[in-house]
Amino acid sequence: MLSHSRCLSRTLGRSLSALSQGNNVLAGRTASGLSAGSRVLYRNSPSRSESLSSVVFHVRYFKTSAAHRDGVVTVNTPPFSESITEGDVRWEKAVGDSVKEDEVVCEIETDKTSLQVPSPAAGVITELLVPDGGRVEAGNPLFKLKKGAAAAASVPAAEAPAAAASVPAAEAPAAGAPPTPAAIPVAMPAVPPVPAQAAQSKPVSAVKPSAAAAEPAAAAHGARTESRVKMNRMRLRIAQRLKEAQQTCAMLTTFNEIDMSNIQEMRKLHKDGFLKRHNIKLGFMSAFVKASAHALMDQPSVNGVIDDTTKEIVYRDYVDISVAVATPKGLVVPVIRNVETMNFADIEKTINGLGEKARNNLLAVEDMDGGTFTISNGGVFGSMFGTPIINPPQSAILGMHGIFDRPVAVGGKVEIRPMMYVALTYDHRLVDGREAVTFLRKIKSVVEDPRVLLLDM
After folding, report:
1. 349 CB contacts (<8 Å, ≥6 apart)?
2. Would residue 218 count as lying in a domain?
3. CATH of the domain at 283
4. CA dist 50 to 5, 15, 55, 129, 200, Å?
5. Does 429 lie in the same domain as 281?
6. What was the pLDDT predicted at 202?
7. pLDDT-flagged residues of the chain (< 50)
8. 143 has which bridge partners?
9. What is the number of structural domains in the chain?
10. How far lies 12's CA from each of 1, 44, 53, in Å?
11. In the prediction, which pLDDT does 9 show?
12. Does the active-site annotation cover 270?
């Protein structure tokens, strides 16, 4: 009888040990990444003929997809174009902000354009891996995102320690005790009694103004302040290229004036029909772009460039015109390609599309690469006269200005005509004065009488 009891006790001890080992396996698997929804089943299936010592415990794991649905992903810097290797980050969102799918989180400013980085999924930003204004290369990690709709409603990770610290130590549950839900307050907290010293307040005249209150008073008395803002990469690159142009090119500028009466009359007469046919407005820019292409084919040296490496002159039999567009972040010059094959409608559509992309910060590097000649229209800002700077590696740039009514001599009489000054800045190493003046006169003749294009004169 005593021997049978010892045997039964030994068997029961082995069973409990096996059960403990199964729990340890469960804990190890849970720590290795299983979600909280995993379950463990212990199946005890001995037959009646088997002894108690042959009990077998089977452990089964069931993994849910909660960990994958609410996972944290790292978003890397997208690839740049071939001519760009790095850029500066400008954050649009902060840690803890909720974002939607494809919502812009940051912009990467490069030498030529800005690249927007959207969120790959809806969620909450948990960490920014690059400081604002930091430099990144393609493939560098940018930020971490906690995906899932539930993540948007969760408390940011940065606020979790503060929330935990606000819980009084006395309310912490005892070790081993199950957590109890927080009690919901049903009454307003009691108002603390006001100390007697507070009743003896100082008069208003005795209170000295604080530093924050003194700032508006200082500003009202004409205080002089200044602020410093870091230059973005696009502005730095523009400054560098303009300075290089001054140091490399022998720049010279020649001028002429254009009577805009005929082109204004043509626009007034055909603008409604042009809009109905092509679904776009007829402007003056298309006339100057087409006139420039006509003049560039007539004067190849203005459309050429000096290769300083090989000491050769490169002449082009095509015309790609860069149109300068001012944006809040700097001057960009998208390119209209093969202008010599376009008509007014094609040019207007291309200009409108490039201008829309520039305003929405969607210009790609490919939209600004190349260009054999540049047109800068300062007239949209009311400019009357100016000397543009060459856009390297080009050899010339045309500057347009505002249209103003001025008295001019027409047929021996003084008449008031809408006039525009135009300026051509060119590299005198390649373009001679005769060619530059002929180029401007060709543009003048085409704009003043567009029928010259039909006659190829």
Report:
1. 278, 280
2. no
3. 3.30.559.10
4. 18, 15, 8, 62, 90
5. yes
6. 44
7. 1-2, 19, 24-68, 150-151, 153-177, 181, 186, 188, 191, 194-212
8. 75, 128
9. 2
10. 17, 14, 8
11. 54
12. no
Enclosing domain of residue 309? 246-455
| Residue 37 in domain | no
Report the C-alpha gap between 55 and 9 in whole angstroms.
Answer: 14
Structure tokens at 175: 């070790």
What pLDDT score does 17 carry? Answer: 54
- Active-site option among 88, 428, 449, 456: 428
- The CATH number that applies at residue 93 is 2.40.50.100
Q: Which two tokens stand for residue 76?
A: 């890397």
CA distance 36 to 181: 19
Q: Are strands 135-137 and 86-91 parallel, antiparallel or unpaired?
A: antiparallel
Question: Does 437 fall in a domain?
Answer: yes
SS3 content of the chain, % helix, strand, coil (to 5): 35, 25, 40
Largest CA distance in the chain: 143
* Alpha carbons 26 and 59: distance in angstroms, whole number: 9
Q: Which of 117, 147, 177 is where one domain is finished?
A: 147
Clarify whether residues 286 and 407 are in a common domain.
yes
What does the pLDDT read at residue 402?
A: 94
**pLDDT tens digits for 302-315?**
999 999 889 999 99
Place of tokens 């452990």: 59
What are the DSSP calls for 313-333, one per residue? EE--SS--EEE-EEETTEEE-
Q: Kindly report the number of other CB atoms within 10 A of residue 48's CB atom.
A: 4
Distance separating alpha carbons of residues 127 and 1, to the nearest angstrom: 69
**Ramachandran bin of 280, using left for φ above 0, alpha for ψ from -120 to 50, beta for the remaining angles:** beta
What integer pLDDT is reported at residue 10 of this predicted model?
58
Determine the pLDDT at residue 69: 53
Q: At 212, give phi and psi (nearest 5°).
A: -65, -35
Amino acid at 175: A
Please indicate whether residue 432 is annotated as part of the active site: yes
- d(CA 393, CA 245) in angstroms, rounded, equals 8
Would you give the DSSP letter of residue 182?
A: P
Residue 149 three-state SS: helix
Find tokens 């130590």 and name the residue.
Answer: 169
Report the sign of the C-alpha dihedral through residues 67, 68, 69, 72, in that order: positive
The residue among 100, 116, 147 that closes a domain is: 147
pTM (global) more than 0.90: no
d(CA 264, CA 235): 36
C-alpha torsion sign, points 388, 391, 392, 394: negative
Q: What backbone torsions phi and psi does residue 255 show, to the nearest 5 degrees?
A: -130, 160
In-domain check, residue 3? no
Rounded-to-integer distance, Cα 278 and Cα 352, Å: 12
Please state, in angstroms and as integers, the Cα–Cα distance from residue 107 to each residue in 92, 104, 164, following that order.
7, 8, 35
